[in-house]
Structure formats: C-alpha cells, structure tokens
Design brief:
The structure holds two protein chains of two kinds.
Chain A lengths: L2 H17 L6 H34 L4 H6 L11 H8 L3 H32 L5 H10 L6 H14 L5 H26 L3 H8 L4 H12 L1 H17 L2 H6 L8 H15 L2 H35 L2
Chain B lengths: L2 H33 L2 E2 L8 E2 L3 H11 L6 H31 L5 H9 L6 H11 L6 H8 L21 H28 L2 H9 L4 H12 L1 H16 L3 H6 L11 H10 L4 H25 L8
Antiparallel strand pairs in B: 1-2
Helix pairs in contact in B: 2-13, 3-7, 3-10, 4-7, 8-9, 10-13, 12-13
Classes of the chains: A mainly alpha, B mainly alpha.
Chain lengths: ~300, ~300
C-alpha cells in the first residue's frame, strides 16, 4: 500500500467516525444521564476509600469526648499524646520492629533461594527439570489451610514454634512457589549472549549468575520482592496460631490486639493513632511502587 | 558444557530450596490429607484410623434434611459472598470500561480503587469496624448528618433471627466488594488496553454505540480475563476467614460466620483435628471442582485477534 493510499484511508476513517456522531434522540439523552450517574458512582467509590482514611487521620488527634461529641469538628487541640500512648502502652513500636525483622529476613531468604532455583530451572537442561518445576508450582493450587495444622506440630517438634525463626522459615517456604514461577519466566526472557561470552572469558558458573544474571534481573526481582513483602508483612493466620508472646507479635496481630485493648479500656485516641502509625509503611510502599504493583499483578495473574 | 560441571551449579542452587519447600510446605499438605482419615484430638499422639468417617460426617451435616447443622448455615454464607463477588466482577468490568474512557480524574480513581488491596485483611477489618461502629462510626455519623437517623444501625452487632436479615453478613459482603473491586478492575483495565484499537474503531464506524461496542466487542475479547477473575472469586469466597474473625471480635457469630470459621473452632476449640482436616480437604476439592467448572461453564470460545 502506498503512503498516499494510507493517508486517504485515514482521512476517510476520520470522516466516517465523525459522521456516526449520534443525533440527539431519547437514547442519546438516556446515555447522557447514564454517563452522569456512572460518574457520580465513580466519585462515590473514590470517596469511600479516601474519606475513611482522612477521618481516621483527623480522629487520631482527638480526645475520646470529641470523637463522640463533635464528630465533624476538627480537633480543638492536637492530641499528640494519643501517639505517645499508642507507642508506649500498646507497644506499636515493638510490633513494627518485629514485622521489619521478620519481613526483611524472609525477603532475603525468599529472593535468594527463589532466584537460584528459578535460574537453574530456566537456564539448565537437566533430567527432571520439568518435574522439579511443576513440583514447586503445585503448592500454588493447594490452599495453605491444609498444611497449617501439620506445620504447627512440625514446628513444635523442632523447637521453632512461637519464635521469629518459625515465622521466617514458614514464610520463606510458602513464598517459593510464586517466586519460582514468576522468576523462572523472567529469566527465560533475558538474552543468553552475555552469559555465553562471560563463560568464554573464563568466568565460573557461579560468577555468571551473581555478577551478570542477578543485575540483569533486577526489575523482575523488584516486582516479586514487592509482592512477597506485602504477603509477609500482611500475613495473619500463621502468626495467629503460632505466636503467643506479646513481644514477638507482628503488625497484623498487633493491630487486632490494638483494637481489642482499645475496646476494653476505651482509649479510642490511642487506637486511631496506633492504626495510623501501623499504616505508614504500607502507604510508603504503595506510594513508591504503585505502578509496578499494578503491572506485576497483571503479569502474575493473566500470563500465568 | 560438561555434564558434571552442570550439576555443580544445579545441586547447590536448587537443593536447599527444594528441601525447605518439601519439609515445610509439601509434607504438611500431604500430612493434612492423611490426618483427615483419622480421629485425632491433637493433644496426644494417639491417632485412630477411621477411614472416610470424617468425610461421611461432613456429608451428613451438609445433606441431612432434619437437622440444621452449622456447616450448612456457614456454607450458605460463603455462597452469599460468592454472589457478591459475581456482582463485584460485573461492577469492576463497568468501572474498567468507564476509566478506560479517561474521564476527569481517571488516574486518581485507578490509584485509590486499588489501594485496599495492599492493606492487610486485619487492617481492613479494624478500619471498617471503626467506620461501622454504632456510636462514633463514620457511616452512622454521615447518616445522622443527612437526616437518615433511622438508618443509623449497629451494622455489625445487630442480630435478628429472620434468616434473610443478616446485617453482619451483608456488611462483610460490602467490605469484600470494597476490598476486591480495585484488583479486578486493574486486571480488566490491562486486558482492555491490550485490545487493538482498530477493532473498537471498526465497530464504532459500523454505527454501534459505545455501550454496544463494550458488551459485544470488548467483553468477548477479554473473556479469558473474566474467566480467570471468576476463578479468583470462587477461591476468595471459600477462603474468607480473617475479616470475619477480627470484625466480630473472635466471638462465634452464627449470623455471619464462614466455613473456615467453623474449621477454626473445630480445630482450636473442639480439638477435632481429624474432622477439621477433612473440612479443609473438602474445601480444596470444591475449589478445584469450581475452578474446572468455571473453565468449562464459561468456556465460551475465546476470541483471538
């Protein structure tokens, strides 16, 4: 097709698109009304997410009396003391520290082990490669509920029950399937030439992985890390059934705890303040990685 | 590459992860299936093999026409949540279509709608129990503010024995919708944006309205995604636990509890570990069957382009 032809086709297409602009009929008016309603609903849902957050933030600076008596007023005086009580009495700081330790350690183990497995499976043809791959993927179909009780007894018998190590081990093991699944596909998309030339230059097989492949895989590693971080950071059930000592509790346990404590001593100020403090890390991660998360979710769910 | 040299990398790279995964994920999962054939309190090592008795008991409680067992009641709540998630899928499709037209503020919509997905279930539960609190909660304050005092109900704790009026369960349903709409929407939006623009334009040129184009061209083209999301909906509806558990303050609530709440109390309160395991195996089989059925049932020929 000549460029001339293409240009005239494009012009024709534009003209036809303009020509189908509908006349003002009943249907068109209904369509307009529908559009307005749809817009209103979009904004309503937007408000249902944003407004509770603002309300929580504002309330965290109020006294309990203001919470009940003046729900729509701004705090008469900023109650910073709410935050102090949340930090000292409800031990929000302890929960955050525990979550940071457990998440960081788990993330290092998951990404280290996961990347090595995924790389070996993606780049090396060996007997049983497919079997090992599907063996790892299989757990993505099996609900965790099936393994919780036996895993509980297992940890009790090896002495990691109710410790941070117990959490880290279990989080690492159960995050491997998704990590291997995602990274194996990612390593396959990377070009082989660099590795091959490095091998010819005399680099060891390990050096090829650590010096060349890992830096190349940064982007995929980051995406999986965010997912694994959120998974571990937000995990509730396993921590619930294994951790009983308050000083070892992670954030989700602490948050449930906070709610109960506030309920019995009716210290709502500390409750709202604690809630806000606990949300800060999630907010920061979301603000930085929002786009990457949306992309990663699409790749993980739809290409999978 | 030398065969022996190859294994020098494969074994240390795959080995540790393989062992960890086998010991802490695969072994407990298989053990879970194994336990479901035993009567076991979990307190002693004394396990009594009972064959399929746990499953028979589960089946009896589900199908017995005389007695009204809790399993059946709780499962009906899961079914309700599944219906809610079907509605969520529909709403997410419409929202994705609207946002794809890039109305004013579409980026803000996209970012905020997705936000609940990064919150932990516990955070969602605590946030909503504050919003729905009968005395100081945000919702009732709004209702009072706009003069709908009569509607300011105790959304979570109101219990009536009429089988249809389960306010607590309806609240859980709404919160689930609130929490998952953004996730479904992102998936739909990504697939819509993958459709070649020519196909949409061609239909528009033939005089179809935007609504018509959406239902007759866009939706069939992203049918694969609709199917995937439906599978997520089935699995999500069967796996609800933490939201209820925190929302209802760890107290059994027969107006809103779910099948996994029942599992939790069987295992950790009644020490009926064998039966609890059978329950989970049942849930696993149902979600497996539902996944297969979803692919069969809404397996309309996928349109390729």
């Amino acid at each position: 097709m000549t460029t001339d032809n293409a240009a005239s086709l494009a012009r024709e297409r534009a003209a036809r698109l303009a020509a189908v602009r509908p006349p003002l009929t009943v249907g068109a008016i209904l369509g307009k009304i529908g559009w307005v309603i749809a817009q209103a609903l979009l904004w309503l849902f937007f408000v249902s997410v944003v407004f509770p957050m603002i309300w929580t933030l504002v309330t965290s600076f109020k006294t309990s009396a203001e919470l009940y008596g003046a729900p729509w007023a701004l705090p008469a005086k900023m109650q910073w003391d709410n935050y102090v009580r949340a930090w000292v009495k409800v031990q929000v700081g302890t929960y955050i520290l525990n979550s940071v330790i457990v998440s960081a350690a788990s993330l290092i183990c998951i990404m280290g082990l996961g990347a090595m497995i995924a790389y070996a499976l993606a780049r090396y043809n060996f007997r049983g490669n497919r079997v090992v791959y599907f063996y790892f993927i299989a757990a993505m179909m099996i609900p965790g509920w099936l393994s919780f009780i036996p895993a509980w007894f297992l940890h009790r018998s090896i002495g990691t029950m109710g410790t941070r190590a117990g959490l880290i081990i279990q989080y690492t093991a159960s995050s491997l399937p998704f990590t291997v699944f995602f990274l194996q596909a990612f390593f396959k998309t990377l070009p082989k030439e660099l590795e091959e030339s490095a091998v010819i230059d005399g680099a060891s097989l390990y050096a090829v992985f650590f010096r060349i492949m890992l830096p190349l895989a940064q982007s995929g590693m980051l995406t999986v890390s965010i997912f694994n971080f959120l998974g571990v950071w937000n995990e509730y059930f396993w921590a619930l059934i294994t951790i009983s000592r308050n000083e070892l509790k992670t954030l989700p346990l602490g948050m449930a705890n906070l709610y109960e404590v506030a309920y019995y001593v009716t210290d709502w100020g500390a409750m709202f303040a604690g809630f806000i403090i606990m949300l800060v890390p999630t907010f920061v991660v979301y603000a930085i990685f929002q786009n990457r998360l949306a992309q990663g979710i699409t790749v993980g769910a739809l290409r999978g | 590459m030398l065969e022996r040299q190859k294994w020098k990398l494969i074994i240390p790279f795959v080995g540790p992860g393989l062992i960890l995964y086998s010991v802490f994920v695969m072994y407990p999962s298989l053990r879970g299936i194994y336990v479901s054939f035993f009567k076991w309190t979990g307190l002693t090592m004394n396990m009594k093999f009972v064959g399929l008795a746990n499953f028979a008991k589960l089946w009896r409680e589900l199908t017995d026409p005389q007695d009204f067992y809790l399993v059946r009641l709780y499962l009906s709540h899961n079914v309700f949540l599944f219906v809610v998630s079907l509605f969520t899928i529909f709403a997410a499709l419409v929202v994705a279509a609207l946002i794809n037209n890039k109305p004013r503020g579409h980026n803000a919509f996209r970012v905020t709608y997705f936000f609940p997905n990064v919150l932990s279930t516990v955070a969602i539960a605590v946030l909503w129990s504050m919003i729905l609190n009968p005395s100081f909660g945000l919702l009732n304050n709004v209702l009072r503010f706009i003069g709908l005092e009569a509607l300011a109900l105790p959304w979570l704790s109101m219990q009536m024995d009429a089988p249809i009026f389960k306010l607590g369960l309806y609240s859980v349903g709404f919160i689930s919708l609130w929490a998952s709409l953004g996730w479904f929407m992102i998936l739909f939006l990504a697939s819509i944006q993958n459709i070649p623009i020519e196909l949409i334009e061609a239909a528009r040129m033939d005089g179809a309205t935007k609504t018509r184009v959406f239902w007759s061209v866009t939706v069939p083209l992203i049918w694969e995604t609709v199917r995937t999301v439906s599978v997520f909906a089935v699995i999500g509806a069967l796996n609800g636990f933490a939201l209820n558990y925190v929302l209802f303050e760890r107290v059994p609530n027969k107006h809103a509890d779910l099948i996994l709440t029942y599992y939790y109390y069987q295992a950790f309160t009644n020490y009926n570990w064998g039966y609890a395991a059978a329950l989970v195996v049942g849930i696993f089989l149902v979600s497996l069957a539902a996944t297969i059925a979803t692919y069969r049932f809404i397996g309309r020929e996928t349109v390729t382009y």
